[in-house]
Specification:
With 254 residues, the protein is of the alpha+beta class. 26% of the residues lie in helices and 44% in strands. It is built from four helices and 14 strands. It has helices spanning 2-27, 33-45, 109-127, 231-237, and strands at residues 52-59, 62-69, 72-80, 86-92, 96-100, 103-105, 137-147, 150-159, 171-177, 183-190, 196-208, 211-221, 240-246, 248-253. The strands form two sheets. A seven-stranded antiparallel β-sheet has the order 6-5-4-3-2-1-14, with helices on one face. It has a seven-stranded antiparallel β-sheet with strand order 7-8-9-10-11-12-13. The chain is globular. The termini are far apart.
C-alpha cells in the first residue's frame, strides 16, 4: 500500500512538473522575426561580450573610452582647446562633468545636454548593432534586398519618444546579411542641425576583445528620386556621393 501511495505521489509530481513547464513555455512571449534577426546580428558581432567591455580609440581629433558593465557605463572624451589645454568630459550614469587642464568647470545645463548628445552619438555608432536592443527601439522587418552577391534582411528602426532621446524622430534602415548575420549597410534620416540623410557602408572590421567594430564610408544622396527605404538601390547604381569616413583608430581593449 505504501509503495502504491509513493508511486501515485510520484506520478502526480511528474504531471504537475510537466504542466508547469507547458504553462511557462506557452506564456513565454514569442519573438518577432525582426527581433530574431537583430539577436542573431548582435550575436555575430559580439553577443554577451557587449555586457561588459572597456575599449579606447581615437576618433577624429579626440580620444574616447567606453566602459560598460551591465547598465552601468562610463564614457570619457579627451581633446584639446585652442590653447593646447586638455579638455576631458567624464560621463556616467550620474551625469557629465568637464575638466579643463585638470580642473573641474561649471557648465550650463544646455551645454551638458549638448556634450552628452555628442558623446552618445559616437558611442551609439561605435557599438552598433548592440543598441538595436535598447528599450526605446521599435523594430520592423520591411523586406529583403540584394546588394552585390549577398541577400539582406531589411529592418526599419524608429524610436519611442520616452527614453528615445532628442533624436527620437530619426529613422534608420539596416541591411543585415542573411549569410554572415552582420550589419553591412544602414541609412538614417535626421532632423537636428538642419536635417539630412546618410547611407553608410561598412568597409573595415576589427575584432577587439571578442567584439566586431566597423569603420564606414558615409555617403550623401544626390538624387532625391530614391526613397529612404530603397537608398541601397542608389548605392548599387553609383549615385551616392562620399561625404566622410567614420574611422576609429588605435582601438584597443583596456
Amino acid at each position: 500500500m505504501k509503495k502504491e501511495n509513493f508511486c501515485l505521489r510520484f506520478n502526480i509530481s511528474i504531471v504537475i512538473t510537466l504542466l508547469t513547464l507547458t504553462f511557462y513555455i506557452s506564456c513565454k512571449p514569442k519573438l518577432s522575426p525582426a527581433q530574431v534577426i537583430v539577436n542573431e546580428c548582435i550575436e555575430a558581432h559580439g553577443g554577451a561580450k557587449y555586457d561588459k567591455l572597456k575599449i579606447g580609440f581615437d576618433f577624429r581629433d579626440k580620444h574616447y573610452t567606453i566602459e560598460k558593465d551591465g547598465t552601468t557605463f562610463i564614457y570619457e572624451r579627451i581633446g584639446k582647446d585652442s590653447l593646447g589645454n586638455e579638455i576631458k568630459d567624464a560621463y556616467n550614469n550620474v551625469g557629465l562633468e568637464r575638466f579643463i587642464a585638470g580642473k573641474k568647470v561649471t557648465l550650463q545645463d544646455s551645454m551638458i545636454v549638448k556634450y552628452k548628445n555628442s558623446i552618445n552619438s559616437v558611442v551609439y555608432f561605435t557599438l552598433l548593432p548592440q543598441p538595436l536592443n535598447d528599450e526605446a527601439v521599435n523594430l520592423e522587418l520591411i523586406g529583403e534586398s540584394t546588394i552585390g552577391a549577398d541577400k539582406y534582411h531589411k529592418l526599419k528602426v524608429t524610436f519611442k519618444q520616452e527614453n528615445g532621446g532628442k533624436d527620437h524622430d530619426d529613422i534608420f534602415i539596416y541591411w543585415i546579411n542573411q549569410r554572415t548575420k552582420t550589419m553591412d549597410y544602414f541609412v538614417y534620416s535626421y532632423k537636428v542641425d538642419g536635417g539630412g540623410i546618410r547611407f553608410r557602408e561598412a568597409i573595415k572590421s576589427q575584432n577587439i576583445g571578442g567584439i566586431r567594430y566597423q569603420d564606414y564610408i558615409n555617403y550623401a544622396p544626390v538624387d532625391s528620386s530614391y526613397s529612404l527605404e530603397n537608398l541601397n538601390k542608389a548605392y548599387s547604381d553609383g549615385t551616392l556621393q562620399e561625404f566622410s569616413r567614420i574611422e576609429n583608430l588605435n582601438m584597443k581593449a583596456n
